[in-house]
Every structure is written in structure tokens, then in C-alpha cells.
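Case study B.
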Amino acid sequence: MNDAAKSKMKARIHIVKRAAMPWYQAAGIRALALFLAVIVCGIVTYVLTGDNPASVFKTIFEGSFGSERRFWVMLQNLSMLLCVSLAMAPAFRMRFWNIGGEGQVLVGCLATAACMINLGGKIPNGFLIFMSLMAAVSAGAFWAFIPAACKANWNTNETLFTLMMNYVATQLTAYYIIIWESPKGSGKVGIIQQKSQAGWLPQIGQYKYLLPVLVVFILTIIVYIYMRYSKQGYELAVVGESEKTARYVGISVPRVIVRSMILSGAICGLCGFLLVAGTDHTITTTLAGGRGFTAVMVAWMAKFNPIGMIFTAFLLVFLNKGAGEIATSFGLNQSFSDILSGIIIFFLIGCEFFISYRIVRQRGEGQNV
Amino acid sequence: MFDFVSFIPRAVMQSIPLLLGSTGETITEKSGNLNLGIPGIMYVGAISGVIGSFFYELSLPDRSLINPYLGILIPLSCCLLGSFLMGLLYCFLTVTLRANQNVTGLALTTFGVGFGNFFGGSLIKLTGGAVPSIALSATSKCFSKVLPFAKDTGIFGKLVLSYGFLAYAAIVIALLSSYVLNRTRTGLQLRAVGENPSTADAAGINVTRYKYAATCIGSMIAGLGGLYYVMDYASGVWSNDAFGDRGWLAIALVIFTIWRPNVGILASILFGGLYILYLFIPTGTNLAIKEIYKMLPYLVTIIVLVLISTRRKKENQAPEALGLPYFREER
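Model:
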């Protein structure tokens, strides 16, 4: 085939950006992608376990809803993932790629643990919790402020900077774990203030996880209102759409960057506080558990809409719990859930193409452009 | 006294996966694709090689009968195939379907690390084998074979000749990549795609083809890094999460070398050295300080990243269009 014929072939298909699609059509495409992804996951599970698909889906369902305890664990995981995703939303809205959620959560954990260990029993409990909260929030905010300030001043690449900050945080945590380890030589911190429960968040009734879940629920609404209806939220959107426009209308871009990142880091710090003071009462280097990275995907798939994030976060947590259940019952490795999440995410980010663009076929030989 | 003779070979062995990963990522980034899936791709490269040689060793009546050529060729081609497919997936999503590069990359890492750990942890169970863990010592011997006279050459031999063939391959690949990137027409066109894809497109360069080729080749090179780690460094023993954060360190190395694979050879040894420095520094009873030493590679990278952004020297910057999608219709 000669070059002219080749270029004619190519010109027959081209891609055009769509005008905004009605929401039900977009939702339909996403649902279809999810459906296809579930089928692929079903096939993969079938090939690996040989179990029949109906029983596989029943097992997945039981992972989250099998018992009251599982349901609460699922809710707790969901709220923590949602919390980090909420933190990502303002940064991503202005196209600041904060993939340092992991580190920001971890320094939040670290600050909380530091307060609980060093001040526990020395000051009134309510004051201690307040101190821990403030310390965690400001630690997270500080961790985010460093890359933000460099981005604002020198346009330093924020993706790579925040990524590196994760590991600085991990090693810092590892350092303090050895200093605080108890019993000595175990390499673990153990449950902090197990006897006095100083600095632990109070429990509502008999539900251990209810308070963190409620906090995140309220936070979701606040972030939604902030992004949607506040002046600052609007400025974020303008900076994200076009920095030039933002400058032209008199928005100080560096200020918006620094302010939003501080907010983003502060929410991550809050998540760290909830993890240590609210549920785990200990600290490990893996306490953030990859949520900083998963949250990026959660926020992206929901198009930075806090309400949408509830669904995308639920989807991933549900899948994670379900796949864990399958792995346990077949004696397989727990990483099975990462494979399934990966497949679902590939489908969901791939399908966005069909929402934003359409493929135009040219008919007839001579009519092409 | 600091023991250089035992420190340097260990630093070099640490450095090879980082060098391969960062060479692969540099080539990818030169096309404007910021592939954050590299850690996942290295896992997939490693586990694909492991799966290949696992079945090969299983098919042998006796491990000692292993054919050294097949013993290398089978894991090598499995590794290249696995990492190629990961690169292809990344390209399909980001270039053809125009998905966001960061999100796709992170998804690829989640998937790849999960894939590696899942099959590493379940391979024996799935095949119904009787062995307790994956230990491919026969294959590993093929990979870590050194020149026959290397032992007789004293300190020189220990410092320079004591590595498996993939280590030398890594250095050759890095030099070759530097040459291709900076001295050939292909390299020039590739850099043009990464710097300014619309100009490159206007000049008649096929942007899509370059992005696909660079990312897939880059992924395959990075995958080799995973293979080297498990077959040579870890003596063929797979343990979950043992590869650790080396994939991210490889990405850090790309910045540290300011996108130059030839600089990467020495820089990776420096990183490898920093990575294991804590084993060689006498700390006495203060174990905690070792964790601070492990922070060094990342801190150094951050400093370099900030410095190059404050200096604004043109030849030291990241590719201009790094991480940005290119759609011809949206200019």
C-alpha cells in the first residue's frame, strides 16, 4: 500500500470532542463499563479459583455485608478512603497533582501518636484530643505546604515532589517507631495508652467506628459546599481551567495554590488523626495503607465531586473486602483485590473517552478532509 | 575503617534494578509520558520471569539438568512480554483513549504490584505443587554466572567482574539510550515529541507512534530491572513486597540524573549506596538513626528537583509536555 492510500485510510476515522453529554447517557456509559469490568473480573476469578460465578459474587458480597462487624469495618475503611479523596479534590480541581496523600496522612498519624505518647495522662483528656487534632492537621498541612510553596514560587514539578515526600514521611515514621517501640526490641509501637485510653476518641454507644464515620460524613458535605458554592472554590475551578484567565481576572495563582494545598494536607492530617486516635491506636509505617494513591483514582473517577466520591470509594472498598474474602476462602494471596481493583479502574478511566469524544467515520472515498 | 571492598559490590548490585528502571522511565518521559506505573511494571516483569522459569524448572526431571541458554531465554522473554503488555496497556489508555496519565499510572502500579504479590504468593497453590516456596536456584545460577577467571583477579575482579550478565547489560542499555536520545535522528524526534508535540506533529513526526514505541520499550527495560532483582540479587527467591519501593526510587533517579541515562550509571550506584549505607555505618545502639539514612535518596532527589526548578536552565528541565496529553484536535 502506498502512502497516499494509507493516509486516506487513516482520514476515514477521526475523533471529535463531544458537546456536554446528558447525564443519564454518561451514567449509562459508565454503568456499561462497570458491567464489562465485573464480567472480566468474574472470568479472572473463575479461571483462578474454578468457583462458579454466582458463588463468587455471593462471596464478594459477604466480604462487606456478611456480618455486622464486617459491615462496620467496611464503613470505617470507606470513610478513611473517602477522607483522603476529599483532601485530593481541591488540589486536583486546580490541576495540582498531589500524589503525596500517603505522606500527609502519615505525618498526621505521627503527630497524633506523638501527642498521645508524650502528653497522655499529663493533661486533661479533652484537651489532649484537641491538641492531637491540631498537631495532626498542622503536620499534614505543613507536609503539603512545602511542595506547594515550591510550585508557587519556582513551578517545581508537584507530582514528583509530593511523591518523594511520601517516602520521607515513611522513613520519619520508621525512625520514631524505633524510638517509641514498646516493648523494646519488638520494632512495634503497640497499642498506645492501652490502660488509660488517654487521647483515644470517645466511642458513641457500642459502635467503635461510628464517630470517625460521622466526622467524614460531615466533612463530605462541607467540602461539597466549599467546592461548589464558595468564592474560594470557584477560584480553584478558574485556576484549573486556565491559569491565564485566572491571572487576568486578578486571582493570585500562587496564593490559590498554597491555600488549596494547605487545605488538602490538613484534611489528610485529619485522616491520620482519625486513624490513630479513632480506630487503630497505634502507628506503623503502612498505616496509610496506600490510601493516598487509591484516593487519587477515587477522586478522578468521581470527577472531583465529593458526593460522587462516596460511590467510587464504596466501589473500591467493597471490591477490596470481597476479593479479600475470596482469597481467604481459596487460600490465595490477599493481593487478589488489587488485581480486581486494577481491572475495574482501567475500564472506568478508559470509558471516559467515550463520554468526552465521539468517533466520526467518513463515508465515501473522495469526501475526506 | 569503612569497608569499601565489600560496600561497592553491594551498592552496585542494589543499583542495577534502579538503573534499568530509571533508563526505561527516562525514555518514556522523553516522549512526554509520565509513567507512574513503573513500580508496577517492574513487579510484573519480575513475576513474569519467575512464572516462566517456574514452569520450566517444573518440567525438568532434575534441576541440575537445566539448559543454561533456555534457563535464561525463557524468563527473559516472559519478562519482556509481561512488561511490554503493561506498557501497551498504559499507552492504549493514555494515548489512544486519552485518559489521565497520573491516574492510569497509579492504577497500573496498584495492578502490577498486586499481580506480582498475588502470583508470587499463590503460584504454588494454583499449580498444586509440593514445594514450600518459590526458589529458582537453578535459574538464578544461570543469571548470576560470572566470568570463569573473575575469581583470580583480586580486588579488581571483586569490584568490576563479580556481577551477572544483566548488570553489564544494564550499563550498555543506559549508554545506548543516551546515544540514541542525544545523537540520532530518532532521538531528536522523540525529544521533540516530549517537548512540544504539536510542533513535532506539524513537522510530520508521528506523535502517537513515538509515544507508543518509547513507552513500550521503556517498560521492557524497566521490567528487566525487576527480573535482575529476583533472579540475580535475590538468588531466585520470590518473597512478597521484597522489591519494596525501588520502583519509586527509580523514578526519583530520573529526576536526580536530570533525564540523562548515562549519568544514571554512576548516580544509580550512589543511590544504591545510600540505600544500603545504613548497614555499613557504625551506629552502636542507636538503631533509629538508620531509618534516617534510608531517607537520604529521597531528600537528595527533592533538593535536585527544587534546584533545577530555581535555576531554570533550559537543558536541565523536564520535557516541556511531560504529563500533558496531546490531542491534535484541541490545539
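Chain B is about 70% helix and 0% strand. The remaining cases will be described in the next quarterly update.
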